[in-house]
Design brief:
This protein has 15 helices and 5 strands. It is mostly helical. The relative contact order is 0.14. The structure holds adenosine-5'-triphosphate and magnesium ion. Adenosine-5'-triphosphate binds near residues 9, 150 and 203.
């Protein structure tokens, strides 16, 4: 069996970083026909670990994330879209896995470390937030996922999940399935920077181009993007490394788009060379990037508008998806209870 599990926190609308880091790959894998089951989870319980006082934010973003999925081409006929908290078995699994992980092991998780710092949680980490890597291991193993397509920041989570699988199987006998991480092949997509040039485009940093942004907003954001701060005049040589306009072009543009939108250049390497040599202005590359992004985002925007007129249907998709997910996770939970010898009435 080949099974995918992946998901997103309903803490905001999804942005082009999610798209190149994970969503686009999910749609490709979904349509490859190579997978027996695909589960896509809206991680509301995880979002509440650092938004406990903002339940309305989490609630309102469930539908936004679901709309973004459908807009990108996730097909509810092929993939099960569900809401994490509607699958209580996940919480029970977490309780059992917690006994197999030490506090110092979670403390060493580099993504948790970075996120604690980013949220100023140093002195007051909610216990639930601290444990979210363990709860993520429950999500992955409950569905017997073999493959998890995610961005680079999830690598430490997958490592921790594999350790839990090994530990569980060695203590209680072969029960859980070990997952593989699927990272984007294109290095620019591993961690797309923000339009401000900060290391990661993130809902929490307000430096995003959202999949649901209007064409005008996308254009405005692209034209305001951070570039090479020392590239002051057109004739100056410019830097390509760490210049987010070029990183986005690395992530999005194809040779065919040069033929269509910027025929003076054959490919991105030629454009980069000219920029580095001097004589190429930021406005010109930004206009090109805008065309490239608009071409990718226009069909997504159209499909989103279609689904926005069918909100009750979207909730039906989430409801039936959650029922399918609950049945699957309950099967794994029964196996886990049997392995742990707590299946008293069987
Ligand atoms: P939050 O700030 O609430 O954590 P987020 O923007 O980090 O939100 P998540 O829901 O945590 O989004 O991440 C969902 C998925 O998108 C994960 O697989 C993550 O690796 C990927 N992802 C998030 N941001 C980026 C990015 N800038 N580049 C590539 N992948 C990303
Ligand atoms: Mg995140």
């Amino acid at each position: 069996m080949k099974i995918i599990l992946t998901g997103d926190r309903p803490t905001g609308k999804l942005h082009v970083g999610h798209y190149v880091g994970s969503l686009k790959e999910r749609v490709r894998l979904q349509n490859s026909g190579e997978f027996d089951e695909i589960y896509i989870m809206i991680a509301d319980a995880q979002a509440l670990t650092d938004n406990a006082e903002h339940p309305e934010k989490v609630r309102n973003n469930i539908i936004e994330v679901a709309l973004d999925y459908l807009a990108c081409g996730i097909d509810p006929e092929k993939a099960t879209i569900f809401i994490q908290s509607m699958v209580p078995a996940l919480t029970e699994l977490t309780t059992y896995y917690m006994n197999l992980v030490t506090v110092s092991r979670v403390q060493r998780n580099p993504t948790v470390k970075a996120e604690i710092q980013m949220r100023n949680f140093e002195a007051s980490i909610p216990v639930g937030f601290f444990c979210y890597p363990i709860s993520q291991a429950s999500d992955i193993t409950a569905f017997r996922a073999t493959d998890v397509p995610v961005g680079e920041d999830q690598l430490p989570m997958l490592e921790q999940c594999k350790e839990i699988v090994h530990k569980f199987n060695s203590v209680y006998g072969e029960t859980l399935t070990e997952p593989n991480i699927i990272l984007p092949k294109n290095a620019a997509c591993l961690r797309l920077p923000g339009i401000d040039g900060k290391a990661k485009m993130s809902k929490s940093l307000g430096n995003c181009i959202y999949l649901s942004d209007s064409a005008e907003d996308v254009q405005k954001k692209v034209m305001s993007m951070f570039t090479d701060p020392n590239h002051l005049r057109v004739q100056d040589p410019g830097k390509v490394e760490g210049n987010p306009v070029f990183t986005y072009l690395d992530a999005f543009c194809t040779d065919e788009q040069f033929a269509e939108f910027l025929p003076e250049y054959k490919c991105l390497d030629e454009l980069k060379e000219h920029y580095q040599r001097g004589g190429l202005g930021d406005v010109k590359i930004k206009k090109f990037l805008n065309k490239v992004l608009q071409a990718e985002l226009a069909p997504i925007r159209e499909r989103r508008a279609m689904w926005e007129s069918r909100i009750p249907d979207v909730y039906d998709i989430l409801k039936s998806g959650s029922e399918v997910a609950r049945a699957k996770a309950n099967e794994t939970l029964a196996d886990v209870r049997r392995a742990m010898k707590i299946n008293y009435f069987e």
